[in-house]
Write a structure and sequence with these properties.
By secondary structure, the protein is mainly alpha-helical. The protein contains 11 helices and no strands.
Length: about 270
Amino acid sequence: MKIISINQSSAKSELMYQLLALLIVTIVVHSVYVTIVRPQAASLVAEQLARQEAGETYEAQRSVFIILKDLEQEACFILMLWAMLIMYRKSQQVGGERSIMDRSLLEIPDGTRVLPEDARQLARPIEALTEDEQDWLPARAISAALLRFSSTRDIGSVSTAIREVCDSHSERLDSELSMIRYIGWAIPSIGFIGTVRGIGDALGKAHEAVEGNISGVAASLGVAFNSTFVALLLSIVLMFFMHQLQLQQERLVLDTEKYCDRKLLRFLKVVAE
């Protein structure tokens, strides 16, 4: 029941963090767009139209403000930064779990034999941890190993208990990345929505191009291609950091198994009755 309560509290905390992160990112990105990106883009577009009407010959320069000015690009930035904040929190959690292995939780001198009767004494440093720390992988693996050793008096069963805890934690970490995977899918999808919208607007202004005014068609096609370009670029960046986070999590699981083997399993001893 205690573990279930800890997991429920952690889930609520994670949900509140994600909602708060989304709210903050939305406010910040929208503020930047309203105060900087769109005014700059409007100014550049107005300057280009004025030079066209004046009959000047010039080469239009691609501006980052014009590339980023549309709603689809803004939505892509909001989603990417939201995912980055979620991944940052998960990376910090991995670092916190790894820090447990640097503490003196299991300091067993070389040559010492650990019997099943000693498991309760070795578990006390784990029980002294905070509730959140007890839910971290190294603490859970050590607790499960000591409990299994005390109850079964079988070293092979202890190794199985550690592997089961690590496997279940690995599956849990993988499932917690589902939101980030969804965002990684949603960003290019939003870019394609911008493409469809831009092409649709361009087709609606085809009569203007026939009459010799191609500025409207060009602007609509710019929306189509810019949204896809930005979305795909942000998706590449996001997937890179997601794979780095996955690598951290996989290393945590593998290092926990090695830690339990090095700090506990090799000292276990069962005395034949």
